[in-house]
Amino acid sequence: MLETKFTPFPEISTARLQLRRITAADATEILELRASDAVMRYIDKEKAKTIEDALAWVKMVAYGRFIKQHYRAEVGYMLHPRYWNQRIMSEALEAVIDYGFNTIQLHSIEAHINPGNKGSSTLLEKAGFVREAYFKEDYFFHGKFMDTAIYSLLNNK
Asked: What domains lie within the chain, and their CATH numbers?
């Protein structure tokens, strides 16, 4: 079975980025992101209103989502609008994919997105992800049923 003990938690460096574990010390920045209408436009979850909301989110995502018996993990991301359209997320995603496939030995990586998020679908497709599923009205948020698209990338090595 897949081994995912992150002790210490991995840090991934790229030409412009240092990817690391999100901690409680990041709560102010997380609050800014998760309170932003622009950032949360396609993230169909409640926006953060308090630092406690941000801390709860940090705690929730601290361990990631791994399906160990299937060598599969989910990737998620959000980026402050001041960094949009600079290929930062492409750079980060490429590094995460490389780490997932070559270090952790994942067989596949998935991403769940709001189908209306064209930026996210374009990012995933450019990275080689394929839309595997489209769930019609599979969850209820803010008084209406919403769709989900699931993208996946296989490790073909």
From this structure: 21-63 (no CATH), 65-157 (3.40.630.30)
